[in-house]
Design brief:
Elements (H helix, E strand, L loop, with lengths): L2 E5 L5 H13 L3 E3 L5 H7 L2 E9 L2 E2 L1 H8 L5 E8 L5 H12 L7 E9 L4 H13 L4 H13 L5 H15 L2
Parallel strand pairs: 1-2, 1-3, 3-5, 5-6
Antiparallel strand pairs: 3-4
Helix pairs in contact: 1-7, 5-6
The chain binds flavin mononucleotide.
Amino acid sequence: MTYAIVVESKTGNTRKLADALARELGSEVVTADDSQVDAAIDAAGTVLAGFWCDKGDCSPAAARVLAGLSGKQVFLFGTAGFGGSAEYFDRVLGAVEKHLPDDAELLGTAMCQGQIAPASRGRWEAALAKDPEDKRAKMMLATYDAAAGHPTEADVAHVVAAAKQALGR
Ligand SMILES: Cc1cc2nc3c(=O)[nH]c(=O)nc-3n(C[C@H](O)[C@H](O)[C@H](O)COP(=O)(O)O)c2cc1C
């Protein structure tokens, strides 16, 4: 079985997962914007597709990759700033899976938390400075702090284990 590991990662969190999967499977990582992405997908029976959570869904670039996986077996993996809740991950995955064509076979999924870009923290700090009672800013700052350092080694191991199980390896 040939695998393609295709990833869309803006700040490197999901790329970490992709690199670990590539090491495990003895495969290469192709980014969603690589000119060779279509050829890599064409040559593969199974595609491990990585996305970062963008407003409750995947980014448009990842959605384009998923929409092109007709007839493929697919393992979906991703990172999101909000972590620690299987229900949240399931909700995101539900939205992301909708980008797959009907004839793609979803073998499995895995998500973990990913740290949030530092620029976001400054925005929420500014909002809180303006209004110390701003509940959303408080919640977002707490989320930012909880997400720092993710994906951890344990996160990576969790995703790799899920992929191996889904692929029967
Ligand atoms: C524009 C934007 C929107 C985001 N939307 C969400 C979201 O709706 N839910 C969430 O949990 N994380 C959200 N995040 C956080 C990212 O999903 C998270 O940091 C992810 O690990 C980034 O992955 P990457 O490093 O592979 O790009 C968002 C980040 C950005 C920049």
